[in-house]
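ECHD2 protein
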Amino acid sequence: GADLKERAKMDDAEVGHFVRRLRNLMDEIAALPVPTIAAIDGYALGGGLELALACDLRVAASSAKMGLIETTRGLLPGAGGTQRLPRCVGIGLAKELIFTGRQIDGQEAFSMGLVNHTVPQNSDGDAAYQRALTLAKEILPQAPFAVKMGKLAINRGMEVDIASGMAIEGMCYAQNIPTRDRQEGMAAFKEKRPPQFIGK
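Tokens:
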């Protein structure tokens, strides 16, 4: 999260500028055209959790601590937390977590759908990171353009009604049809061999 001692030295205009820049950074991370995975092995509080929420997938050690704790400091989440958390866990849970400023562990985060996976912490303190790498290795062999279009269709579709979302999916699918990777995927299936995707 943010360095609150540093923030306390800022005037109101500087705080506003700082938070806008932070929000823009989170939006840029969310808009990356490749899958992003947050690995939470320790604390992800305030801006740290907002960073994780800007990622596509999240993995946490069961002992990790996370929360949007801003209300405990007279603030509210300002880098996307009020928008991304409800889309992740639902409005009721998001309101409860934000209103109370409660910290939860990795197992609680998993049970409410905040993280995709929770793992016991290892002796190196990087269990979530290792599980995130395993997850990334599952994604890596897939057709890059298809994954990119899937991410775009999901992200844009979640912002609109389902009929508009279906239209967005159709546009993304249409962009995938002429790719060499789609042709390779079909040929590999027919020939009963693993596909060799090239991202085109």
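The first strand starts at residue 37 and ends at 40.
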